[in-house]
Amino acid sequence: MEVLFTLQTIVRHGHKRGKKLGFPTINDMVARTVPEGIYVSFAEINGKRHNALTFIGEAKTFNETDYLAETYILNFSEDLYGQAVTVSVLKKLRDNQKFATAQALQKQMEEDRRQAEAFFASDNF
Question: What's the CA gap between 18 and 27, in Å, rounded?
Answer without folding.
Answer: 10
